[in-house]
Each structure stands twice: as structure tokens, then as C-alpha cells.
Amino acid sequence: MFEISGEHIVLVGALLLFVAVVAGKVAYRFGAPALLLFLGVGMLFGWNFISFNSPEITQFIGMVALCIILFSGGMDTSFQEIRPVLGPGAVLATLGVVLTTLLLASFITLVAPWLGFELSFPMAMLLAATMSSTDSASVFSILRTKKQGLKEHLRPMLELESGSNDPMAYMLTVLMIGIVGHEGTSGGIGENLLYLLVQFLMGGIGGYAIGRAAVWSINKINFENHSLYSVLLLAFIFFSFSFTDLLHGNGYLAVYIAGLVVGNNPLTQKRTLTVFFDGFTWLMQIVMFLMLGLLVNTRDLLQSDVLILGGLVGFFMILFARPIAVFLSLAPFREFSTKARWYISWVGLRGAVPILFATYPIVAELPGAELLFNVVFLSTILSLLIQGTTVSGMANVLGLAYTERKASFEVNLREDMTTSLTEVEVGEQMLTKGNTLKEITLPENTLVMMIYRDGDYFVPQGKTELQVGDKLLVITDRKEELASTYRAMGIEDVHKHH
467 to each of 33, 359, 405, 429, 431, how far by Cα in Å? Predict the structure, then answer.
């Protein structure tokens, strides 16, 4: 067994990253979640090659990684897209987490004695709390990698829920650790509700305030080296987490809201920041899953008691706890069809976050913490195997998927530019007055910059003949007039470049 220490860390780290990236490529080809393969690589190396047993280090790295993942998820989320689903998303992220915890804890309390386990209800609540949130890393990764369109605003709904329900799960986990450990945090219901309220309130206020401060600072500071904008934003991410935590708010909620604020405001060098955080987020996801895979003892995971309890917990979560919690939480909201509710229930993916939260009882040295960690780990693997591999398939079965048109042009505009860049496909109605570009009626200050046809790109002239199926890249100062022109031509599918 290889001990991680000193000069070996860089070598082992490079090898792990290389194998993980290759595994991710294989996973994409076969339709499996790449993050499951990252976890598997960590488990494989931990079983045969590397000795690693530090929940404290894993917890710290996981905290840093989760901050980056949540912020990046918020930054990539359009507020316009999530506005129609803010209500149901917020209910799922709070009430849904509580209901999932209560349902799963009740089930664990009932079946544990039959399996020879002595688990008190508070301990069952702790186990359930660690597993009560959907995993943002898994959901963001799978939905955005698949590039699959979902009807009924399901994609922004699922991303909003997965990005905002970790704080409630974290607070319940910390609360139950205090109750199980009798450390004086097991006050009455009123005191616990006040604790949750303060966490949410301060987390929301702190995240919004620091997000606005980040936007103002980045837009006001003029760096000669554009790479420093990414470093500055990283500082704001970690400051939002730690400072909010000092104010007794929820740092994870603050980070996600700060990401929403930054991503939905005009920002200097936004393209540079987006590219940096896309790559850095993938690095953090890989590192977090590798560390969690290294931490688990595969031999303990394969013990009969862990296999039975973990299997039962995993299947109950997938088939009963998650669907019941979703249907109850969404009962007041009529905008979702029954099929959409079933799909939301199915995409309740568990991933790195439940495993990360399961390290907290170990660090707190609670009795039974090792069993809890192994059960959560096994249940997470089941979720990724069963639900993660069928995200696209289930959407097709339920009739909720549609093919998302891929952009033919890769173009990005500066945030301070007032022009609009759109991409449309030529249809027969567009060519009714003639098939040359000069015969197409467009508003003033509007130009067709480029045409894509059969794999080739070329700059057009007025005499250029258009064909049905051509893709046009159009730039204009008259957004409203161009939108009216598109409607008159029967064009509904308009791709906007930002």
C-alpha cells in the first residue's frame, strides 16, 4: 500500500487526475455519469495502491470544492429562466429536504431492529439528513453535459433545487450532530427553528451583499492582466462563505446566491471568468470525488450489514422518500404535469454532497459514524448507477425531452455592447420574395455577418443565393424590429449569442 506523503503527492495527484479524465471520456461515450467514474477511480486506487484516511482533510477539500461548484452553478443560471419556478424550487429546497429526512428516518427506525442494528431516531434522522439534498455537482454535470432540452421549465427547476437545497441539508446535519452528541445544541423546537431561520436569513443577505460587492469591484478595478479578475472573484467566493458563517448564516447558501448575483449582472471580462470557472469547477468536482473515493474503505463497504442496510436505504430513497416528498411539496403548484412531477422525483440524484456531509459525524467522533458513512456511500453509488444513467432515458419515456439545437457559430459579445447577435435558420417563407440576400427585407443597421452551409462558413454579399437550411449569423442595433421581422418570416427558433 502506497502512503501519500511528501514528494509523492504531486505524482499521485497527476496520475489520479489523468485516469479520472480518461474515465470521464469513457463514461460520456457509454452514457454513464462521469462523476461516478471519478468516484470509482478513487475507490480503486484507495483499495489497492493508496492509504488515505483523513476525514478532516477530505471535509476541508470538499468544503472548498462545494463553494466553487455552487458559485459556478449560480453564475451559469439565468435569473430569467428560474423566475417562473422560484416558488416551487424554494419549497423543494426547504420543505422537500425536511420531508425527505423525516420519511427516510422513519423507514430506517422501522427496519434497523429487524437487521440487528440499534439506531435511535435521532441517529436515523442524522443519517437521513446527510442524504436529504440532491447533489448539485451531479445534476449540473449531467444536465449540462447531455445538452438535452426539457419541457415545463424542468431544467432550470432541477438546477435551482440542486443548487439551493444543500444549505438546508447541511443545517439539519449540523443540528442532528448536536442532538446526537448532546453538545448543548439540542434545544427546543422554537430554538431550532430560530437557528434555521437565522441561517437562511443571514445566508441570503450575506450572499446578495457580497455578490453586489464583487460585481462593483470587478467592474471598477482595471487590471492590465485579465487573469487577475478570476483571482479576485475567487477571493469573493471564499469571503462570502467564511464571512457569512461568522455572522451565523449559511455559507453555502451565500455562495450560491452570490453566484446568481454575479452571473446575472453586467461584468467586465465575463467571458474570461466563465471559461476559467468552467474548467476550475470540473477540477474541483474531480478532486472532491477522488478524495471521497480514496477515503472509503471498500472492504467495509462490502460487509453484509452495510450492503443490506445501504441497499434498503438507497432503494427506499429512490422509490418512496423522494417521490412522496416531491408530490407533497409541489401539491400547491398546478403548473407541473404528473409526468413532470415523476421526472423531478427521478432526478433526485445523490452524489458527493451526501458523502461529504457523512464525514461530519466521523469528525465529531459520534458512535456509529463509520456505519453511517458507509451506508450513505453505498446509497449514493446506487443513486448514481440507477438514476444518473437514466436521466435522458426517463425524460424520453415520459415525453418531456426535446432536441436542443446546437449553435452553429461560437461568438461572444462584450457585456457593454448594445448590439444583438442572433442565429436563425433559413426557411421557405423567408425566400418568398426572392432567394438572394439583398431580396430579404431586414431592419436598418442590421447585417448578415456570416452563413453556415453544409459544414462551411462564408461571408455573404448582396447577390449571395440563400438555401433552405442555411444558418445566418445576424447582428443588429434594432432588436425589437428584428424580432418582429423574424415573426413575419415565420421564424420562431432564434438562438441569441451573449
Answer: 40, 60, 19, 12, 8
Please identify which residue in the block is written with the cell numbers 453509488.
381
DSSP-assigned states of every residue in 303-321: SHHHHHHHHHHHHHIIIII
Tens digits of residue pLDDT in 343-360: 999 988 898 889 999 999
pLDDT in tens, 390-447: 888 898 899 988 776 666 677 766 665 667 888 988 988 888 888 899 988 888 888 9
Helix (H, G, I), strand (E, B), or coil: what is residue 216?
Answer: helix
β-pair type (446-453, 420-425): unpaired
What is the C-alpha separation between 344 and 248, in angstroms, rounded?
A: 32
Q: What would the pLDDT profile of 32-48 be if each residue is shown by its tens digit?
A: 677 788 888 888 888 87
**CA–CA dist 467, 465 (Å, integer):** 7
What percent of the chain is helix, strand and coil (3-state, nearest 5)? Answer: 65, 10, 25
Tell me the C-alpha distance between 410 and 423, whole Å. 10
Which one-letter amino acid corresponds to residue 238?
F
pTM score of the predicted model: 0.84
How far apart CA 476 and CA 65 sit, in angstroms, is 41
Sheet strands side by side (includes 495-497) = 456-458, 446-453, 471-476, 420-425, 495-497
Residues 56, 361: Cα–Cα separation, whole Å: 11
| Angle separating helix axes 97-111 and 322-329, nearest 10 degrees | 150
The closest alpha carbon to 436, from 472, 476, 466, belongs to: 466
d(CA 354, CA 166): 9
Of residues 301, 212, 294, 376, the one with CA closest to residue 12: 294
Round to whole Å and give the CA distance between 399 and 397.
6
Q: In angstroms, what CA-CA distances link 397 with 33, 107, 154, 411?
A: 19, 30, 15, 35
Point out which residues pair with 474 in neighbouring strands.
422, 448
Contact 63, 280 (CB under 8 A): no
